[in-house]
């Protein structure tokens, strides 16, 4: 466990402004996806605050841990992280999948959570590509 913490600590304890940038981007991303999922009647969070717990408190640290890895490794590790999140959300019924939604119709009801995990695992490499660009635009000339 000490070895894991020694590896993770420098990846997690970064510039506070970078963490805030990740938090804002992921919160807005989560809010937008929850809105889209609700409007399209695909899936939604049961409670609004799950955007914070899932996107900010769970996905931001995972993104920080995966920063710097090649796209395929970020996606692969992100798939594991999202698999646990999707499984937990639907098992605990804190996420709601609309009956006969678009994904059920395309891929079948038994593949819904897998499809969601495969899609949302892309957030990690995409977030780790977008957030540093936003961060550098905002803070490039500041001390």
What keywords describe this structure?
143 residues; mainly alpha; two-stranded antiparallel ribbon; 7 helices; globular
Write out the strand line-up for the largest beta sheet, numbering strands in chain order: 1-2
Computed structural class = mainly alpha
Number of strands: 2
Beta percentage is: under 5%
Order of helices and strands: HHEHHEHHH
Globular, elongated, flat, extended or rod-shaped: what is the shape? globular
What Rg is obtained from the alpha carbons, in whole angstroms? 16 Å
Low-confidence stretches: none
Output the number of helix runs.
Answer: 7
Mean pLDDT: 93
Biggest sheet features: 2 strands, antiparallel
Q: What level of helicity do the residues show?
A: over 70%
Distance between the termini: 35 Å
How many discrete domains? 1
Short description:
This protein is mainly alpha-helical. It has helices at 2-12, 16-39, 50-66, 71-91, 102-107, 112-120, 123-139, and strands spanning 43-45, 95-97. Keywords: Membrane, Transmembrane, Transmembrane helix.
How would you describe this protein?
Keywords: Membrane, Transmembrane, Transmembrane helix. The chain crosses the membrane at residues 18-36, 48-66, 75-92, 112-131. The protein is mostly helical. The chain has one domain (15-139). It contains seven helices and two strands. Strands 1-2 form a two-stranded antiparallel ribbon. Helix 3 (50-66) crosses helix 7. The radius of gyration is 16 Å and the shape is globular. The termini are far apart.
